What does this fold into?
Amino acid sequence: MSIKLVVPCLMLLAAAAAPARAAEPAPAEAPRGAIRPVGFPEAIQAPGEQLVTALHAEGAQIYECKTAADGKLTWSFREPIATLLENSKTVGRHYAGPNWEYQDGSAVTGKVAGTAPGETENDIPWLKLDVAARRGNGLLSDVTTVQRVLTHGGKLAGACDKAGEFRSAPYSADYIFLKKS
It folds into this structure.
């Protein structure tokens, strides 16, 4: 397991186990176990929500060459394709929608509610997504918010020369699944 994944996971576990000791003081009305990630941009925070699970993803962002409003060809994001991992074992998949599907058959579809820049110009943005739909019963059944953080890669560089052409850009990210308290 990479240090890039270990540190945020430890932060999340510490926040869930001992919210009173979090770096940001919790308001009196905050429920026990509420996640208060330190260092997450305000636009993607989910105050008062509790951790369901955190999964690492490895995959690709798929782009399609399309004609923009100005008549020029440009790469347009089409969909993600990624494997969801827990302790280096495949436990689910992430795909167009955006959808996250866990091995127990539970799944959620998200809608972007907030964005923050990735750490470098080559990294796709960090996101906060509200759950718009649920399927199946299992781990993801009660999830209300998904955060995409610690992104690496995923942005496509280079010219777009032929409409309808597809390209992929490898990426990794951590997805944090939260529920209302």
